[in-house]
From TrEMBL:
Molecular functions per Gene Ontology: kinase activity
Organism: Zea mays
InterPro entries: AMPK_gamma/SDS23_families, CBS_dom_sf
Coiled-coil region list: none
Protein name per its UniProtKB record: SNF1-related protein kinase regulatory subunit gamma-1
Keyword Zinc-finger: no
UniProt keyword terms in alphabetical order: CBS domain, Kinase, Repeat, Transferase
Length: 278
């Protein structure tokens, strides 16, 4: 008896069926685009079948990170706690928050405090954060790559590297700032969303060519997020397609041959942290 297929594998077999009946004169790329164009994003399996994890806009950054960590997700939509229950999704949500976004926002605030562009008087949360970060800075190498550095490149570097994130997360700034106050710093209001009638091709283009990390799925005129499709969930889906003819046509290619977006060396951030043997 054949074992039941996973929802991801079901999509792979659906693409397989479309692949076999596609116009023979089409190139492999055109055939694959045609297949994905015929599948709506409503067919994509839910990452969280029970519900979409939301962050209330009055949650602190610390509470936000705790929710993300507990649910093992990297981002989540921010729900406006002041919006009425019957509000549309456009009014109910104010953005998407990401782990990386929180870290970058804290760093930008500490940098602004150093430059005197935000309130940083003695005893202020920002001033306290900056003083505890010590001499941590970014520097650009001759190759254009960003690295972390300190005024002293030995013991002080190890100290800053080892306690850097602990310093960020123990600051009052991190504990007291509301996630709703920073959401506008990263996403337009509220976020770019897919409609349930949109196709897999649109979804894949946004996640790859346009480098979106996650895409909420909504109904036109609806009041909630139906699903959230992430880069990692798409990779998981493709992993379930190994062995299917349409996938093998691409699965044997090198990454450099697939035309995926390439990160430029100047956009990479590298930190130097001393490794301590225990």
């Amino acid at each position: 008896m054949e074992s039941p297929r996973s929802p991801e594998a079901e999509i792979g077999h659906r693409v397989e069926d479309l692949w076999e009946v596609a116009e023979p004169q089409l190139s492999p790329s055109e055939k694959l685009n045609s297949c994905f164009e015929d599948i709506p994003v409503a067919s994509f399996p839910r990452t969280h079948p029970s519900q979409v994890i939301e962050i209330p806009s009055d949650a602190s950054l610390a509470e936000t990170v705790e929710i993300l960590s507990k649910n093992k997700i990297l981002s989540a939509p921010i729900r406006n706690v002041e919006a009425p229950e019957d509000a549309s999704w456009m009014d109910k949500y104010i953005g998407i928050v990401e782990f990386a976004g929180i870290a970058m926002w804290l760093l930008s605030q500490s940098d602004a405090a150093v430059n005197g562009t935000v309130g940083s008087g003695p005893g202020s949360p920002v001033s306290s954060l900056v003083s505890r970060l010590g001499s941590f800075t970014f520097r650009r190498t001759s190759s254009g790559r960003l690295e972390t550095a300190t005024d002293s490149e030995s013991d002080e570097a190890a100290s800053v590297g080892g306690s850097f994130f602990e310093t960020l997360t123990s600051s009052e700034f991190y504990k007291n700032t509301k996630v709703g106050d920073i959401s506008g710093s990263f996403r337009w209001a509220p976020f770019l969303a897919l409609q349930t009638s949109d196709t897999f091709l649109t979804m894949l283009l946004l996640l790859s060519k346009y480098r979106m990390k996650s895409l909420p799925v909504v109904e036109v005129g609806g009041d909630k997020i139906e699903n959230i499709i992430t880069q990692s969930s798409v990779v998981h889906m493709l992993a379930e397609c190994v062995g299917l003819s349409w996938f093998e046509n691409w699965g044997t290619k090198k990454l450099s041959e697939l035309g995926l977006p390439v990160m430029k060396p100047s956009k990479l951030v590298k930190t130097q942290v001393q490794v301590i043997n225990t």
